[in-house]
Design brief:
This protein has about 200 residues and is of the alpha/beta class. It folds into 2 domains: about 1-25 and about 110-203, 3-Layer(aba) Sandwich (Rossmann fold); about 35-105, P-loop containing nucleotide triphosphate hydrolases (Rossmann fold, 3-Layer(aba) Sandwich), CATH 3.40.50.300. It has helices at about 15-25, 30-40, 45-55, 65-75, 75-105, 135-145, 150-160, 165-170, 180-200; strands at about 1-10, 25-30, 110-115, 130-135, 175. Helix 6 (about 135-145) crosses helix 7. The termini are close together. Bound molecules: adenosine-5'-diphosphate. The site of adenosine-5'-diphosphate has 16 residues, from helix 1, helix 6 and helix 9. Adenosine-5'-diphosphate binds next to helix 1, helix 6 and helix 9.
Length: about 200
């Protein structure tokens, strides 16, 4: 089995590529979804997050309101570090468990889609790293047009993430998402082909 870590900045096309790869037969683990699960009441991080940030972050049904939490940690590196220290190890264990299950099932390719693959220290969980890169202006426009993200918010979120050049230093494969969706599909198809030749698997 091959485990691919798929990473890249916001709006670079990770989810799009993950679903293309799923269509080709890969098992996708979405770190965002794992993040949601650790936050659930009764989930492995709920209690510690509430202890650290107070009951003010809860909504009426005792769920952690991620927007309230985001407001606290955005632009506050200390609070963000505190939150990550709670979340990341728990998410790591959940992801590790899912990879183990995929191996037991006999899955051939697992894709771990994670914006923070490198920053969270999850490199160890994957065999190779695929990095998505896209021109900032295109990302801003896509986020604005397709996701309704205000331009300034998009730019602020891009500013706080690892620079694309930095991320690419960790890459085994770089996918440049600078064209149409059709072109992106072709590039992913090509990498899938290369992967099956490289690993000698029949994916
Ligand atoms: P990420 O998961 O990295 O945040 P997404 O895959 O969600 O990025 O892409 C952000 C938005 O841009 C989505 O609405 C997606 O459909 C769109 N998008 C991604 N790549 C392209 C492309 N090559 N052409 C047009 N739209 C794209």
């Amino acid at each position: 089995m091959v485990v691919i870590g798929l990473t890249g900045g916001i709006g670079s096309g990770k989810s799009t590529v993950a679903s293309i790869l799923a269509g080709m037969g890969a098992t996708v683990i979405d770190a965002d979804k794992v993040g949601h699960e650790v936050y659930c009441p009764g989930g492995p991080a709920w209690q510690d997050v509430v202890t650290a940030f107070g009951k003010g972050i809860l909504n009426d049904t005792n769920e952690i309101d991620r927007q309230k939490l985001a407001k606290i940690v955005f632009g506050n590196p200390e609070a963000l570090a505190k939150l990550n220290a709670i979340l990341h190890p728990r998410m790591y264990r959940m992801v590790e468990e899912r990879i183990k299950k995929a191996r037991q099932r006999g899955d051939k390719v697992v894709v771990l889609e994670a914006a923070l693959l490198i920053e969270a220290g999850w490199r160890l969980l994957v065999d190779e790293v695929w990095v998505m890169v896209a021109p900032v202006e295109k990302v801003v426009r896509r986020l604005k047009d397709k996701k309704g993200v205000a331009e300034e918010d998009a730019r602020a979120r891009i500013r706080v993430q690892l620079a694309a050049e930095e991320l690419q230093k960790h890459a085994d494969v770089v996918i440049k998402n600078n064209g149409s969706l059709e072109e992106l599909k072709e590039k992913v198809g090509h990498q899938w082909q290369v992967l099956s030749e490289r690993k000698g698997n029949d994916c």
